[in-house]
Amino acid sequence: MDSPSAAKQKVIEYYKLGLRHIKLYWKLRRPEFEAAFETADSLGMKVYGHVDQNIMFIDSTLDIGLRNYEHILTLVNSVLDVQNDGKDFSLEMQKYYAPGTHF
pTM for the complete prediction? Predict the structure, then answer.
Protein backbone atom coordinates (compact mmCIF):
# COMPACT_ATOMS: atom_id res chain seq x y z
CA MET A 1 0.00 0.00 0.00
CA ASP A 2 1.28 3.41 -0.85
CA SER A 3 -1.00 5.45 1.42
CA PRO A 4 -3.32 5.14 4.41
CA SER A 5 -6.34 5.82 2.19
CA ALA A 6 -5.31 3.02 -0.20
CA ALA A 7 -5.00 0.66 2.77
CA LYS A 8 -8.44 1.69 4.02
CA GLN A 9 -9.99 1.19 0.58
CA LYS A 10 -8.42 -2.26 0.21
CA VAL A 11 -9.89 -3.37 3.55
CA ILE A 12 -13.32 -2.06 2.52
CA GLU A 13 -12.99 -3.90 -0.80
CA TYR A 14 -12.25 -7.17 1.03
CA TYR A 15 -15.16 -6.57 3.40
CA LYS A 16 -17.55 -6.02 0.48
CA LEU A 17 -16.36 -9.34 -0.97
CA GLY A 18 -17.56 -11.03 2.22
CA LEU A 19 -14.26 -11.47 4.04
CA ARG A 20 -14.52 -11.13 7.80
CA HIS A 21 -10.94 -12.07 8.76
CA ILE A 22 -7.89 -10.15 7.59
CA LYS A 23 -4.16 -10.55 8.11
CA LEU A 24 -2.02 -7.42 8.04
CA TYR A 25 1.48 -8.15 6.78
CA TRP A 26 4.84 -6.74 7.74
CA LYS A 27 5.26 -4.74 4.52
CA LEU A 28 2.73 -2.18 5.77
CA ARG A 29 4.36 0.85 7.34
CA ARG A 30 2.76 2.33 10.44
CA PRO A 31 0.40 4.83 8.71
CA GLU A 32 -0.96 2.16 6.36
CA PHE A 33 -1.02 -0.52 9.07
CA GLU A 34 -2.94 1.76 11.41
CA ALA A 35 -5.46 2.77 8.72
CA ALA A 36 -6.03 -0.85 7.72
CA PHE A 37 -6.41 -1.98 11.32
CA GLU A 38 -8.80 0.81 12.29
CA THR A 39 -10.94 0.25 9.19
CA ALA A 40 -11.13 -3.52 9.67
CA ASP A 41 -11.82 -3.14 13.38
CA SER A 42 -14.60 -0.61 12.73
CA LEU A 43 -16.21 -3.09 10.32
CA GLY A 44 -16.11 -5.84 12.96
CA MET A 45 -13.52 -7.89 11.10
CA LYS A 46 -11.19 -10.22 12.99
CA VAL A 47 -7.71 -8.75 12.47
CA TYR A 48 -4.47 -10.74 12.62
CA GLY A 49 -0.94 -9.49 12.20
CA HIS A 50 2.26 -10.80 10.70
CA VAL A 51 4.63 -8.09 11.88
CA ASP A 52 8.18 -9.34 11.58
CA GLN A 53 11.08 -8.24 9.34
CA ASN A 54 11.98 -5.31 11.62
CA ILE A 55 9.41 -2.95 10.08
CA MET A 56 6.44 -3.15 12.44
CA PHE A 57 6.99 -4.35 15.99
CA ILE A 58 4.73 -5.92 18.54
CA ASP A 59 4.86 -2.91 20.91
CA SER A 60 3.73 -0.56 18.12
CA THR A 61 0.95 -2.84 16.94
CA LEU A 62 -0.24 -3.41 20.51
CA ASP A 63 -0.51 0.38 20.85
CA ILE A 64 -2.57 0.46 17.65
CA GLY A 65 -4.88 -2.22 19.09
CA LEU A 66 -3.81 -5.46 17.41
CA ARG A 67 -4.21 -8.48 19.68
CA ASN A 68 -3.89 -11.46 17.32
CA TYR A 69 -0.44 -12.40 16.07
CA GLU A 70 0.85 -15.12 13.81
CA HIS A 71 4.29 -16.69 13.99
CA ILE A 72 6.53 -16.66 17.04
CA LEU A 73 9.17 -14.81 14.98
CA THR A 74 7.03 -11.73 15.59
CA LEU A 75 8.02 -11.77 19.24
CA VAL A 76 11.68 -12.52 18.58
CA ASN A 77 12.05 -9.60 16.17
CA SER A 78 10.36 -7.30 18.66
CA VAL A 79 12.87 -8.00 21.43
CA LEU A 80 16.05 -8.99 19.56
CA ASP A 81 18.26 -6.35 18.00
CA VAL A 82 20.26 -8.28 15.41
CA GLN A 83 23.09 -5.75 15.27
CA ASN A 84 23.63 -5.86 19.03
CA ASP A 85 22.34 -9.29 19.99
CA GLY A 86 22.72 -11.39 16.84
CA LYS A 87 26.12 -12.90 17.65
CA ASP A 88 25.06 -13.93 21.17
CA PHE A 89 21.79 -15.37 19.84
CA SER A 90 23.61 -17.35 17.16
CA LEU A 91 26.06 -18.78 19.71
CA GLU A 92 23.20 -19.77 22.00
CA MET A 93 21.27 -21.47 19.17
CA GLN A 94 24.33 -23.49 18.15
CA LYS A 95 23.92 -25.39 21.42
CA TYR A 96 20.69 -26.82 20.02
CA TYR A 97 21.26 -27.02 16.27
CA ALA A 98 23.87 -28.49 13.96
CA PRO A 99 27.17 -26.62 13.60
CA GLY A 100 27.14 -24.23 10.69
CA THR A 101 23.48 -23.36 11.08
CA HIS A 102 22.95 -19.61 10.69
CA PHE A 103 20.25 -17.56 12.37
Answer: 0.71
